[in-house]
Specification:
408 residues, flat, 0% strand, mainly alpha, 23 helices, single chain
Length: 408
């Protein structure tokens, strides 16, 4: 007769086998987002785990398979986060074991990234080591998965930025150095604006990027800008200074060309080289051109009247090409007949050289349609000059720019 120990072992084995077979059947049904192979270890883990933990992991898998090969909906995404936030390290590891990396699925990548974030909140070192491990990096490279490493970097930097920096400094992954360095550097700058640059870069030079981003966000006074400009310009490596100036010129939080006179004055006060000042001026102008061409033109006219005519024309021409309605409305409101007239004269000659056939409206050809709307602006603002010029043009252009051929 079998002893009670052998009977207990037989019952456990039978239960595990039955659960394994049932679970394998479930995996075959729910395969839209893929599944890792079921192992005896994974079955035993499910049998031994608390019911609530198994239910949470099953619900996450259910949401994963509902999405399948598409993205999670906003509601599903929020539910996934609510589940993951309650996970323990063991839950995270159990869930990761069930999500395959191949074939690639967007939903799987999203969930793995969430799980790594939660893992890093609980055990950042283990999460970071896993993110750069062979299971989560492209074959034959030393680059960890970007999204997983970014999640670890964000969570670890919030928990202990200095520890994160020291780990990244000792790691061979360039991506880990950059992502952890940026996130931890930004956090250190928020905690200690005055000492972060020296401390963070002493541990990991790659962290200067995050430090500079955080400090640029605080550069809302001339005093702060001058102090930081002086400190950055004194560094042997000028990369941090270049990034800071780029942020001042291009960040949506800054006002671009409108801020540039004050920033330029701060740069000169800090002893920045004239060629860097000139480069910043151009960057700020390009930034404002891309965001608010009208303001850029006005700023050019005010800051250098008569000497920036070509820059104004270039900005207006580009604006009229991409957003003709905005450009023409602004030109009328500001009485800038000069910009419209120059564009009309230039594009009329281009039309004549292009092999254009009169009477062909060509709705997608800017030269054909745009020259008409710009001529209407010119004629509205300076009717005598517009009429006098039109009389000198060939009949094809005169006919095209007449009222009969204007867009309705």
């Amino acid at each position: 007769m079998l002893s009670w120990k052998y009977r207990l072992l037989l019952c456990a084995g039978t239960l595990a086998a039955a659960t394994w077979l049932g679970y394998r059947a479930e995996h075959r049904v729910m395969d839209s987002a893929g599944n890792n192979p079921v192992t005896f270890r994974s079955v035993v883990r499910r049998v031994m785990a608390p019911k609530s933990r198994v239910a949470s992991i099953d619900r996450l898998n259910e949401l994963r398979h509902l999405a399948g090969r598409s993205e999670l909906t906003p509601r599903e995404h929020a539910e996934c986060w609510s589940i993951v936030r309650g996970f323990s390290v063991q839950d995270v590891e159990a869930c990761l074991a069930e999500i395959p990396m191949k074939p690639p699925r967007v939903v799987n990548e999203r969930l793995v990234s969430m799980l790594f974030f939660r893992w890093a909140q609980l055990d950042p070192l283990a999460a970071a080591e896993a993110a750069v491990g062979p299971a989560y990096q492209p074959e034959g490279t030393i680059y960890a998965s970007y999204s997983n490493m970014a999640s670890v970097a964000t969570a670890w930097a919030a928990k202990d930025p200095e520890a994160a920096l020291r780990w990244a400094a000792a790691n061979d992954s360039p991506l880990a150095k950059n992502l952890v360095g940026g996130a931890a550097g930004k956090m250190m700058a928020a905690q200690d604006p005055d000492g972060a640059m020296e401390k963070a870069t002493a541990i990991l030079p790659a962290s200067f990027s995050g430090v500079v981003i955080a400090l640029a966000q605080r550069s809302d006074t001339s005093e702060r800008r001058r102090d930081l400009l002086a400190r950055l310009s004194a560094l042997p490596d000028q990369q941090a200074l270049e990034q800071y100036l780029n942020l001042l010129a291009w960040s949506p939080a800054r006002q671009g060309i409108q801020d540039s006179p004050a920033v330029i004055e701060d740069m000169e006060h800090a002893g920045i080289a004239p060629e860097r000042v000139a480069t910043f001026r151009e960057m700020a102008l390009d930034s404002m051109r891309s965001r608010n061409p009208g303001v850029a033109i006005e700023a050019m006219q005010e800051s250098a009247p008569g000497t920036s005519e070509k820059d104004q024309q270039y900005t207006y021409f580009s604006w009229a090409l991409t957003k003709p309605g905005e450009a023409t409305a602004w030109a009328v409101a500001k009485s800038r007949s000069d910009l419209a007239s120059n564009l009309v004269q230039s594009n009329s000659m281009n039309l004549l050289r292009s092999g254009w056939i009169p009477g062909n409206e060509e709705p997608n050809n800017y030269l054909v349609q745009g020259v008409v709307s710009q001529f209407q602006v010119w004629r509205k603002l300076a009717p005598e000059a517009a009429s006098a010029w039109l009389k000198t043009m060939p009949s094809d252009i005169r006919s095209h720019l007449s009222d009969d051929h204007a867009p309705r």
